Amino acid sequence: MLTLVYAFNFVDRQILVILQEPIKNDMGLSDTQLGLLSGFSFALVYITAGIPIAYWADRTNRRNIITASLAVWSGMTALSGLAQNYSQLLLARIGVGIGEAGGSPPAHSMISDYYPPERRATAMAIYTTGLHLGILMGFIVGGLISEFFGWRIAFFSVGIPGVLLAVVFYFTVKEPPRGQWDESVNMAHKPSLGETLKHLSSVRSFWYLALAAGATSFAGYGNGNFAPSFLIRNHGFSVGEVGVVLAIFGGGGGMIGTFLGGYLTDRLGVRDRRWYVWLPALAGIIALPMGFPYLLLDNTTVVIGLMFFVTLFLNTYMGPVVATCHALVPSSMRAMASAILFFVLNMIGLGLGPLTVGVLSDLYMPHFGNDGLRYAMLTVGLLSSIGIVLFYLAGRHLEADVKKAQAVGQGDS
Questions:
Q1: Could you give the number of structural domains in the chain?
Q2: C-alpha Rg value of the chain to the nearest Å
Q3: Buried b (16+ CB within 10 A) or exposed e, 5-27
Q4: pTM of the model
Q5: Residues near 85 by Cβ (< 8 Å), separated by ≥ 6?
Q6: In CATH, what number is assigned to the domain containing residue 134?
Q7: What is the pLDDT of residues 367-403, one digit of tens each?
Q8: Under 8 Å CB-to-CB from 300, ≥6 apart: which residues?
């Protein structure tokens, strides 16, 4: 159920991505405005609201928070279909961002209470496959409905079912006992935001990890949000065709990569915990050279094949990152730690990624025409490769920082 809710999270978030070309033509928008709409403005409220909601989630019923959040973001998605201008659409998307801020931090905390440490990366990876399931659903539903019925109906078609799912979620999901897999933990003590930040300030691997995830998602969100426009402008796809292709090769590749990232690190991590950061770094090294032919070649068949593998490798990081994040803090800080992790990740990735691609595309357009977008995406891909180095640096401090977290947890008991 948590995975299904996360899928609806990304259906409602990514539906705008597949619809942005029809919306751009209808409202006369620039690529910079599209980047603001699908990236920075959404991310700003998403990450800002995430901190207080996570603080609440560490203290109250997490299932109820997720239920209310799902109803809010789904309702605001449906309202997006009524927007008559850019400002109204922007306000509706801000509402979606506020609602979605209450999705992942409480869910991450619940999963860490459902599963013991040696199974968490796999569990988190399965949960995170909901991201790509949502992208798959959003691209297919959004692309096909937009092509036949218009982009406004597409917003209604994914928003209204989410409100109904919120009711089902409330009556079928139980709140797990907090800290049931953690020995000698005092769950009566609820750390403040200041206490959590004070603990994390000395955990160097957490910050390297958060920045590495942010750098990786910088290309993931930046290039992913403009992938439909890239295929439409540079390869002659229709909106419906883009929806199907990106759902299968983008969403499918992302789901496989996300699951493998968690599954493999849980098994390799038994021998050496540093595999939780080494594997995402290795995947980034493999994906980097594939990005050049993916963005520069004109052979559509080869481009689509490379897109599948680039997406697969670049999505191995989320399960290991969240599981490692939770190993670096006591159980009473997990929702807040997830919110801080997502603050960094989404500010860099979701906030700056699409905006950077949009700005660079507009700057390159006078010189390269429609190829300006492909060079903008290539630039962002190269910049994001710093994540490989940051994952390596996180591994250098990981063992000592996990022991520090265990000591803090026992000290609170």
A1: 1
A2: 20
A3: bbbbbbbbbbbbbbbbbbbbeee
A4: 0.75
A5: 27
A6: 1.20.1250.20
A7: 998 899 999 999 999 999 999 999 999 999 998 888 8
A8: 235
